[in-house]
Amino acid sequence: MKLLVTGGAGYVGSVNAAHLVEAGHEVVVLDDLSTGHADAVPEGARFVEGELSEAAGPLLAEGFDGVLHFAAKSLVGESVAKPELYWDGNVVATFRLLEAIREHGTPRLVFSSTAATYGEPERTPIREDAPTRPTNPYGASKLAIDTMITSYAHAHGLAAVSLRYFNVAGAHGRFGERHAVETHLIPIVLQVASGSRESVAMYGDDWPTPDGTCVRDYIHVDDLAEAHQLALQKAQPGTHAIYNLGSGTGYSVLQVVQACRAVTGHPIPATTAPRRAGDPAVLIASSEAAASDLGWKPVRTLEDMVGDAWRFTRDRAGA
Ligand code: UFG
């Protein structure tokens, strides 16, 4: 298939673009490099540097079989301080993309959605029919996009799938996570192991969890990429399917730090800090729908995620 990958110079987008190239697809990456890196675009993909709102239309006019849409702003804290960036960069830009998809009759869309659309869960594990009450503008912007996509699928026959990721981790060879402002747990812990940070602060040790630290559902970015390919194959015209992607297993912050100590052999000093605003105690996905409808099964462990992220971190440091 000829596929447009928006945000294909970012973390999840570049790993997906690499998987798609490896699977033999013709891949065009569109990215404005606001947070992505030109050297993260895989060999074999054509790279177009540009704004989603402006460049998607002229590109889709060429004729594409589908779009995988990763380009987005994705920092929860920033979304609270500057919501306008999220309504514009996520919602308005995706509206422009959907209009280009409609105008040029692009048949398929796979959208990078998030567990943040659910907010604080009433029940664990979280299923797709759980209430959607996002607790920050980031999650609200992704939920608004999901709502737009449903209406386009129903009205215009688009075959659409939204994938709601839980905590993505790991790396795919030279494609991995490298944000200018790092807020995610595993890369921060590995910065300690590689010597670029003194210690990791664990946000709260008094949560209602077995060891008092927050529990999250970590999913390897390669398992995630496999789900995108399945979604692309199984998308049905006129339908917008929504699937959670997680492993169904929770790990606490302390367990993640311990896994990083075991993989790196570094003592990784950890301190306890106050709770971070907006963090739920436990977030675990039910991925039963993705298993039954898409035939998707995540196979990589937390140790695989930490091991691959660690290799990526050390390769980049030139160690
Ligand atoms: N944490 C620490 N110390 C740190 C960084 C994180 O203790 O230095 C903790 C957090 O408090 C949280 C856990 O580690 O309990 C994981 O935090 P991350 O920032 O890695 O990930 P989040 O669970 O906050 O966020 C993820 C995605 C978001 C998405 C959200 C959905 O990264 O994009 O899940 O709930 F919105």
TrEMBL record:
<dbReference type="InterPro" id="IPR036291">
    <property type="entry name" value="NAD(P)-bd_dom_sf"/>
</dbReference>
<dbReference type="GO" id="GO:0003978">
    <property type="term" value="F:UDP-glucose 4-epimerase activity"/>
</dbReference>
<keyword id="KW-0520">NAD</keyword>
<comment type="similarity">
    <text>Belongs to the NAD(P)-dependent epimerase/dehydratase family.</text>
</comment>
<keyword id="KW-0119">Carbohydrate metabolism</keyword>
<dbReference type="GO" id="GO:0033499">
    <property type="term" value="P:galactose catabolic process via UDP-galactose, Leloir pathway"/>
</dbReference>
<dbReference type="Pfam" id="PF01370">
    <property type="entry name" value="Epimerase"/>
</dbReference>
<comment type="subunit">
    <text>Homodimer.</text>
</comment>
<dbReference type="InterPro" id="IPR005886">
    <property type="entry name" value="UDP_G4E"/>
</dbReference>
<feature type="domain" description="NAD-dependent epimerase/dehydratase">
    <location>
        <begin position="4"/>
        <end position="246"/>
    </location>
</feature>
<comment type="pathway">
    <text>Carbohydrate metabolism; galactose metabolism.</text>
</comment>
<protein>
    <recommendedName>
        <fullName>UDP-glucose 4-epimerase</fullName>
        <ecNumber>5.1.3.2</ecNumber>
    </recommendedName>
</protein>
<keyword id="KW-0413">Isomerase</keyword>
<dbReference type="InterPro" id="IPR001509">
    <property type="entry name" value="Epimerase_deHydtase"/>
</dbReference>
